[in-house]
Every structure is written in structure tokens, then in C-alpha cells.
Amino acid sequence: GRDLLSIADLSATEIKSLLGLAANLKSGSIELRCPRKVLGLLFQKASTRTRVSFSAAMYQLGGQVIDLNASVTQISRGEPTIDTARVLDRYLDVLAIRTFEQTELAKFAQYADIPVINALTDLEHPCQILADLLTIQENFDDLAGLTLTYLGDGNNVAHSLMLGCALVGMNVIVATPIGYQPDESVTQQAKAIAGDRSQVLVTQDAEAAVAKAQVLYTDVWASMGQEDSADARIPLFQAYQINSHLIKQADPNAIVLHCLPAHRGEEITEEVIEGSQSRIWDQAENRLHAQKALLAALLGGV
Ligand code: CP
Q1: Strands (E), 132-224
Q2: What pLDDT sits at residue 227?
Q3: If you compute the radius of gyration of the chain from its CA atoms, what whole number of angstroms results?
Q4: How far is the CA of 262 from the centre of ligand 1 (A)?
Q5: Domain-by-domain residue ranges, the chain?
Q6: Cα maximum dimension of the chain
Q7: Distance from the CA of 47 to the center of ligand 1, in angstroms?
Q8: Is 98 known as a binding-site position?
Q9: Comparing 7-124+287-299 with 128-283, is the CATH topology the same?
Q10: How far is the CA of 197 from the centre of ligand 1 (A)?
């Protein structure tokens, strides 16, 4: 099947088409149905937005959802991935997986003959970025030429943002402390995608990074599984907090995004989350519309 393991599995044209479809589904100008199709959610980590938005999207398309997690499957007792994948694809039409390692996700995709969707790994979060681009498109006429500045930990969300922004012709600046930069291989891939159409820059200078930005974006400083190092990170990351001072350095029309969950007072202040430039709640809502478009496209919705 056609998989979505990385946002870069999609072409620029496909991303634009999915965003258009998502906008039309959101406005109600079109309706799509995937009757009798079954989505499996195989989640090995906690999730609020991804789990619920995928479920609601599938129900709204007229399909069904089976909510799986490792503890209720034989995965928890050591059944190999290659066997699990070859069994689940006999029951399901599409499978969204949240797991620790991209290599584990890739193995599922290799052995399952149905579309496999990355619902978050250590490397990427492509579904999040579809919702982010939809939110940016709602606020600005054209994505190409806009500048998004990501501040904080160069993590899975940062990786997918770099690739996704490069694909749609946006400039992307990632400002992180030393030692927390995005993977060099992802940076190089994003630069290759951007070519001479747009800029991909990794820097330590948060204030300079936001100077021309229309979109400011952040995520938690310590992801799931990194809680042990969370306290040590706070002083290192302080200069990368999105607060009212930093926002003033950006484009006056800049919007603020956060994929959530947020740690108020760490990567972002309460004032900014609840302020007039925040589009965080629209962004969370757009997970539903973007993934509905994705499911309909993968399942041949009519
Ligand atoms: N943004 C996001 O993926 O949220 P969840 O972890 O709640 O799914």
C-alpha cells in the first residue's frame, strides 16, 4: 500500500491537494465517504490529539476504528513485528502507528500490504505537519515565501516541519541550543528539497531567528521518554521560550503554533498561548480535517 512514513513521502503537489481537500472538508463544501473501511490505531505511547482526531475522522467518513495498543496485543508478549504486520493487514484497510523508532514503523510498512501512517516516531510526525500547514494556509494567502521559525528542541516535529516547509517553498529557521540541533541528515535532506527556492537554516540565535518570521512554532523541550533530562534542559533552553518579548521581534502579523501538549512557563508562556496571535486551538482542530483528507485519499473516499 501507499504509506506515509515521512512528510517527504508526499510531493509538493500532493501536499497542496491534501490541504485543499482538508479545507473543503472543513468548510463542508464537499463530503467524502469511506464506508466499511477499518482503521487500526496501533499506539505504543500516550496520545490525545492523534488518537482522537484519527478516530473522529474515520467515523465521520463512515468507517470504523479499532483502537489497539501494545498491552492488548501479543506485541506485549513478544510477537514479532513482521508477523503482526502480516496478520493485521488481513483485517484492516489502513494502519496508523505511534511507536518509538522509525525503523520499527518502516518494518510494519514493509510487511503490511495496506497503507501505514506514521502517527509519531522518534524521527518524524508527518500528520502534525499537514495540520500545521493547513493552519498557516488559513492565515496567509500563499505558503510559498513565508518564513517559519521553530524554537527549542530539534526533535521529530522539527524534522517534519523542515521537510514539509521546504516542500511547499517556505523558509524554515530552526533555533536550538548546541547539542539539540535536528539530525544533520534531515537538515541536508530539507536543504536538498528547498534547493534555491527557499532557505533552510539551523542557528542558536533565537532573537535573530524570529526577525522575519510569519510563523513562530515550538514544542516541549523534553519529549516522552526524555523526562529524566527535563530539569537539566530548562536553563539551556530558556532563551528559546516563546514569550511576549520574543514575539515583538517577529513580523507584527506573525501567528504562534504549538503542536501540544504544552508546558506553560517552559517553551511558551500562558500569555502567548491565550494571546491574540495564537492559532494553537485551530491547529489542534485541523488535525481532524487534515487526517480526514489523508484517510479519504488513501482509501479512495467517494
Ligand atoms: N500533537 C500530538 O501529536 O498530540 P498527541 O500526543 O496528544 O497525539
Answers
A1: 147-151, 171-175, 200-203, 215-218
A2: 77
A3: 19
A4: 10
A5: 7-124+287-299, 128-283
A6: 54
A7: 5
A8: yes
A9: yes
A10: 31
d(CA 128, CA 273): 18
The reply to whether 126 sits in an annotated binding site is yes
259, 277, 283, 291: the catalytic one is 259
201-204 long-range contacts, CB within 8 A, separation 24+: 201/171, 201/172, 201/173, 201/174, 202/154, 202/173, 202/174, 202/176, 203/173, 203/174, 203/175, 204/175, 204/176, 204/177, 204/178
Is the separation of the CB atoms in 290 and 24 below 8 Å?
no
CATH entry 3.40.50.1370 includes domain 128-283 = yes
For residue 86, indicate whether it is catalytic: no
Kindly report, residue by residue over 91-129, the tens digit of the pLDDT: 999 999 999 999 999 999 999 999 999 999 999 999 999
Residue 5 DSSP code: S
Angle between helices 49-60 and 280-299 (to 10 degrees): 50
Active site annotation includes 196: no
Give, in order, the Cα–Cα distances in Å from 192 to each of 158, 172, 234: 16, 13, 33
Q: Which residues of the chain have pLDDT under 50?
A: none
Please give the distance, rounded to the nearest whole angstrom, from the Cα atom of residue 282 to the centre of ligand 1.
14
The model's pTM is 0.97
Backbone angles phi, psi at 290, to 5 degrees: -65, -40
List pocket residues of ligand 1, CB cut-off 6 Å. 47-50, 120, 128, 259-260
Atom of ligand 1 nearest to the CA of 46: 6
Within its chain, how far is the Cα of 222 from the centroid? Answer: 16
Probe ligand 1: pick from 7, 45, 50, 54, max atoms within 8 Å of CB? 50
CATH number for the domain formed by residue range(s) 7-124+287-299: 3.40.50.1370
Grid coordinates given for 55: 478516530
